[in-house]
Amino acid sequence: MITPASTLLTHDSPNRALLVIDVQNDFIPGGALAVPGGDEIVPLVNQLGRQFERVVLAQDWHPAGHASFASSHPGKNPFEVIELSYGPQTLWPDHCIQGSPGAQFHPDLNIAHAQLIVRKGGNRQVDSYSAFTEADQTTPTGLAGNLRERGIDTLFLCGLALDFCVAWTALHARREGFATYVVLDACRAIDTAGSCAAAMAQMQAAGVQFIQARQLGGASRGALPDVVA
User: Fold this and answer.
1) Which of 50, 51, 93 minimizes the C-alpha distance to 70?
2) Average pLDDT over residues 175-194
3) pTM for the complete prediction?
4) CA 152 → CA 20, 142, 195, distances in Å?
5) Tell me: domain 16-63+97-215, CATH 2.40.40.20, correct?
6) Which residues contact 148 (CB under 8 A, 6 or more apart)?
7) In angstroms, rounded to a whole number, what is the distance separating the alpha carbons of residues 127 and 90?
8) Hey, which residues are catalytic here?
9) pLDDT digits (tens, 9 = 90+) for 123-160
């Protein structure tokens, strides 16, 4: 159920930013790690981008032979879970390899005014779902400091996939002290082995707010949107 929506004027709110997570070819149907319906969100993400002056793009950017790839572990298959030095790791098909067509942003993604691209997953031995912190939970990307230096304290997230990179980014945003909203209709999930329900519960417990895109943009300065109930 969605409560009656108020609106948010984003373009004149210097403390707010949009984080667009991993809208890349390998996560689109036909890609190496396709998220069902991943292509459907691109027009909506573009629309959201036009409502924000401050936009950050996150980009999965793995070296070949990354530890999160099933192909790096003989006898293992994609979506199996193994233990690495930092804890449980879901194994994935090879995807978003640095410089490959699959790692590029979707060709219809059009947010030319984005100020920053955060590339993650470049450490061959450690995965990085989050745009803030690698999967070892200690190695920062530098995003939090960048946002704070620009006076940003409120974040709106969209992209792929809701139950992994969006969720981890949202959880780490809350851990860093940012007010955090996930725009649900501008996300899609992989949803393997109940991962979507688990991620939603974790985000809610951490204080992440869930909204719809229609609840953004339009009226009085400073008004925050009502949330999905």
Assistant:
1) 93
2) 95
3) 0.90
4) 15, 14, 30
5) no
6) none
7) 10
8) 22, 120, 165
9) 999 999 999 999 998 999 999 999 999 999 999 999 99
